[in-house]
Structures are given as C-alpha cells and as structure tokens.
Design brief:
The complex is a heterodimer of chains A (104) and B (371).
Chain A: E1 2-5, H1 8-14, E2 20-22, H2 36-46, E3 66-70, E4 73-74, H3 86-89, E5 95-99
Chain B: E1 3-10, E2 13-20, E3 27-32, E4 37-43, E5 51-57, E6 61-67, E7 75-76, E8 89-91, E9 97-99, E10 104-110, E11 118-123, E12 126-130, E13 138-139, H1 141-144, E14 160-166, E15 174-179, E16 182-186, E17 194-195, E18 216-221, E19 229-233, E20 237-240, E21 248-249, E22 262-264, E23 272-274, E24 292-295, E25 303-305, E26 323-325, E27 333-336, E28 342-345, E29 353-356, E30 362-370
Antiparallel strand pairs in B: 1-2, 1-30, 2-3, 4-5, 5-6, 6-7, 8-9, 10-11, 11-12, 12-13, 14-15, 15-16, 16-17, 18-19, 19-20, 20-21, 22-23, 23-24, 24-25, 26-27, 27-28, 28-29
The chains are: A alpha+beta (104), B mainly beta (371).
C-alpha cells in the first residue's frame, strides 16, 4: 500500500483527511516497478477531481508549482517512470505532494 | 416575497450573499473554495439553483465546480480545456509569435433555456461550450482560428475572453470580447466570427481603424433591445445600435472615460452605469471618490451617484465582471471592489450601502432573483 500526502487544497478537493492509501502493486496490477507515474495514475483514477491539478492532463508534465518529496529527497525532477524509493513502495514512508512556496 | 442571491468571486474564494426581496438584511455564506481564485460564478436563468464556478490557482490549475442546490454543495466537473486542432500562435507583448497556452476560465455563461448548456471564455482567448452540465468542454474553434488570430496580442491582464453575450432574440447570435483583440460576433452559433470594432479609437495601437487590436473591457446589452450594445473600452464608453456593425463614443461629461464594468438597468434600456477610473496607469477612482455614473439617455449625459459611497481616500478598483443588476422593481445595482467591499443599491443607484466590507479582492459579481 502506497501512502500519499496531499496538500491542503487537494485534500479539500478530494474530500479526504490525513493520508491517502493507494493499492498500486497488488496481485492484479502491473508487476513492474512502482513509479511516480503509476502512483499518480492510481491517485487520479481513485480521485478524478484531481485530474489536471498535479500534472497536465495530456502531456503528463508536472505543474510548475507542484513538488514531489519522499524519504527527505526532492523527487520532483525525477523521470516519471523512475522507480520510487523502496521505503515508499513498502509503505514505510509517504510520497508527499505539495505546493511550492510561491504567491500570496 | 422573492429573494435575491448575489454570487461573488474573489481572489481567495467565492461568497454567496442572500436577502429577501427587500434587500435590507443580508446573509453572507462562504468562503467556498477558500484560498482559490474564483474568477466567475454564474447561475442558470433556466434553473436558478444550477450554479457554475470557475476555480483556479497558480499551483493546481483550473477546475470547474457545479452546484445543483443554489450553492449549498458543489461537485467538480470537467476541466479539460484543450485547443482543438493544435494551439496555433498569437503575438506576444514583444511582437514575437507565441503558442496559445491555456491559463484559466474568466467567464461562464449558462444559456437561457438549458441549465446543462454553458459557455466558457478562456485565457488565452478561446470559447468553449458544454452541453452536459460542465462535464465535457468543446472549443468553438472558428473564433481562435479567425484569420486575424495570429495578430492578437494580450492586454496587461492577459489574452482573455471575458465577455460572452448570448443574444436573447436570436439563438444563433453570440457576442464575445477579448482583451486586447476586440469584439466579435457570430450569427451562426459560433461556426464563424466577424470582428465588430468599427468606430473604436484606441490610442494604444498605431492604426486607429484596425480591424482588431482594441482593448474592449466589457460589453452589455438590454434584452429588450438586442441590437443596442454598450461598451466600456480601455478608454471611452461606446454604444452601437446595429449589433456592433458600428460604434460611437458616448463618454460625454464623464470625469474619466477609463473603466472596466458597464451595466444596463433591468427595466430602462437607455439607463446605463459605469464606474470611472482615473487612468490606465492609476486604477482607482478620480480624486479618491468612488462614484458610479448613471446615464438615463443611453450615454453622453452622465450624473454621479455618490450617496452611501466613500467620497474621500478611496483607491479601490472595480473589475470588468464585478457589476450586475437584478430584475426587481426598483432595479438593484451591485458591484464589488478590489478592496473587498460589495455595494448595492435597491433604488436604481440613488443610494448605496455595503452588503459586506472585508472580503478578498472581488473579481466578479452576478445576481439572481429567486422565486
């Protein structure tokens, strides 16, 4: 089970509190590595109101003021198909989505 | 007694102000979508409980919200606004070509007879329509691909399609306005478009008779006189009596003919309202006095309306979508300011009072009369 932490605005939008738990690598799912793209695909399928808020709906490109952190690393500019850290895949650490410090 | 619902979009959320028909005691509900920019929310004339809201922000982009219960609850609907057939290019501020890039929805215009059919005006300029309550949006591409499109340049606020008028007498006729491309009319439901900018004079462009390039701020129309249009341009208040084929200036004795909104009285087609702003470089009322100006002669002759409005040290702006009228008798006038005040008049503008004073900067105001 992958743990995902959403920023406050997206929690409100998705009507969730606390962490979101996603089944990304279950027995019926792709046996390949768990990646940022797969996590976001499952997240958007489960919460379709988030479509377009984290990444472009068509290009898949991360929105400029959105960041991805995990295990005290900034994964924002990692390739979307790169494997996520093992501790994220094992559910020991959350995959954090947040809005960059910007604006007023 | 009938009720009134005022829909207010602000820089940090939406607010819904309600009163009975006396328009004396108001209830303030909000913020909805707190922390998000709400450029516009608007109600369906066919079903006043059907509302649409444009929710956007720099972090998480564009969302459209729909309510089926007058704003008590909201559901996220479709936000896939793509430029059909490729983006194409317009001119950037420096005169170089730049691809169309979606930024946000400025204006939502539900049709008169179908709550599920709603038009949306975008930045960068494009017109979309949904016929399923906002779930799926289809671009009316003939506007953006008009032969003049590659010459359109943004105004300071962006290349925004901010005005949509669905003609009440002709279902195939649509007017739109784009900053700073100008006004356009379609007589075939959006399949083709005609620039309607003859008579506009804009010192900001070299060719005063240019077909496009005029910074139209707002157009309004009285439903009983559909061929008469009133326009607040960057500078100049204009009117047309031939569905936009030609325009003439009616600024008359205004202290400044710069401004953003323009509205027409619900029951008097020749009574119009503007809020003069000092200049294009100083976006606040002349002399720090917030005055609505009313013309009962369709322009040229204007009177200041000051009773209840701050007449000293007032340096707010009133944005283009932030003025509306109700259809009660006497007609109610409403406007919101960048200082967060929403003022209203329940007597056609003779006297004013704030409904609420300390909202975030107001981006848009619409009003509904409820049964």
């Amino acid at each position: 089970m992958i743990r995902v932490i959403l920023p406050a605005h997206l929690k409100n939008l998705a009507h969730v509190q606390g962490e979101v738990q996603l089944e990304v690598a279950g027995p019926d799912q792709d046996p390949g590595p768990v990646t940022q793209r797969r996590v976001l695909d499952v997240l958007e399928a489960q919460y379709p109101m988030l479509l377009g808020t984290i990444r472009d709906r068509h290009s898949g490109q991360r929105r400029a003021f959105v960041r991805f952190y995990a295990c005290e690393e900034d994964l924002s500019n990692e390739p979307p198909d790169a494997p996520l850290p093992e501790r994220v895949v094992a559910g020991q650490e959350p995959f954090i989505i947040l809005g960059a410090m910007a604006g007023g | 007694m009938s009720g009134v619902r005022v829909l207010v979009g602000t820089r940090k959320g939406a607010f819904i102000l309600t009163s009975d028909g006396s328009r004396n005691d108001w209830t303030i509900d909000g913020p909805h979508f707190g922390g998000w920019e709400v450029y516009h929310l608007n109600g369906s004339p066919a079903d006043p409980d059907r509302l649409y809201a444009s929710q956007s922000g720099g972090w998480f982009g564009q969302l459209i919200q729909r309510s089926d219960d007058g704003g008590k609850t909201w559901t996220t609907v479709g936000n896939d606004f793509t430029y059909a057939g490729g983006a194409g290019e317009h001119l950037w501020y420096d005169g170089t070509p730049r691809p169309w890039e979606f930024k946000r929805i400025w204006h939502l215009e539900p049709t008169r007879d179908d709550p599920d059919t709603v038009y949306a005006g975008a930045e960068d300029a494009a017109l979309y329509v949904s016929t399923d309550g906002g779930q799926k949006w289809t671009e009316l591409t003939a506007l953006r691909t008009h032969p003049t499109g590659p010459t359109w340049q943004p105004g300071a606020g962006g290349l925004c399609l901010h005005t949509i008028i669905l003609d009440p007498a002709n279902k195939d006729r649509i007017y739109v306005a784009i900053s700073a491309a100008g006004a356009f009319r379609s007589d075939d439901g959006g399949a083709s478009w005609l620039p309607i900018n003859k008579g506009l004079r804009s010192g900001e462009i070299p060719d005063q008779d240019a077909e496009v390039g005029h910074c139209v701020h707002r157009i309004t129309q009285h439903p009983a006189r559909p061929d008469t249009l009133f326009m607040q341009k960057h500078w100049d208040v204009m009117r047309s009596d031939d569905a936009g084929a030609s325009w003439r200036e009616v600024s008359g004795n205004l202290p400044s003919d710069f401004g953003f909104p323009i509205a027409v009285h619900a029951h008097e087609p020749e009574t119009i309202y503007v809020v003069p702003i000092k200049s294009d470089s100083e976006h606040f009322p002349p002399e720090g006095r917030l005055r609505v100006y009313r013309s009962r002669t369709g322009g040229e002759e204007w009177e200041p309306l000051t009773n209840g409005l701050p007449q000293s040290n007032c340096y707010v702006n009133v944005l283009r979508d932030a003025m509306a009228v109700d259809t009660l008798d006497p007609c109610g006038i409403y406007f919101g300011t960048t200082g967060g005040q929403v003022y209203h008049s329940a007597d056609g503008g003779d006297s004013w009072a704030p409904i609420v004073r300390d909202l975030p900067a107001v981006l848009s105001v619409e009003v509904q009369v409820l049964p």
